[in-house]
Amino acid sequence: MLKPLRQGLPPLDPSAVSEAASCALPARYDAVREARRFTRSTLEHWDVGDRFDDIALVVSELVTNALRHALPAEPQAGSAQAPPVRLHLLRWTGRLVCAVRDPSDETPVPRETEDDFSAESGRGLLLVESFADGWGWHPVAGGVSGKLVWALFRLKSAD
Predict the structure, then answer these.
(1) Which positions of the chain have pLDDT values less than 50?
(2) Confidence (pLDDT) at 13
(3) I need a surface site. Which of 4, 5, 15, 40 has the fewest CB within 10 A?
(4) How far is CA 121 from CA 86, 110, 115, 127, in A?
(5) Complete DSSP assignment for 75-107
């Protein structure tokens, strides 16, 4: 198992965050569309400049990965728990983090570039790495299982 990646992650002090928004996502693939809609609506109110499309793409990839790789194949019968995937958007002055929390303890691992280039899937984290200024993950704290996979975007200052 790879060690958690926290390098480049902004401080998690809630008082330092300029703006924050989050939404719970159901364990269905149409949740990716819901995540994009939520991201678009949120970012319309924040000044993210020319990073809007990059952020929306990365959110789609992180949510898709959580739904595809981090959820159990068979939902537990009779379990009425909170939605298993949650999207968080946090903006500081000059930077934005999108983070997706999921219930898996498995390490997210990008595929090797030598893989089949004609494959229709398997490039999510490579896209995240290409479009974000940094990305990583860490286990969820507080005795709860799961992880948080995040991507950092530097924003141009408004001056």
Answers:
(1) 1-2
(2) 61
(3) 15
(4) 22, 12, 11, 11
(5) PPTT--PPPSEEEEEEEETTEEEEEEEES--SP
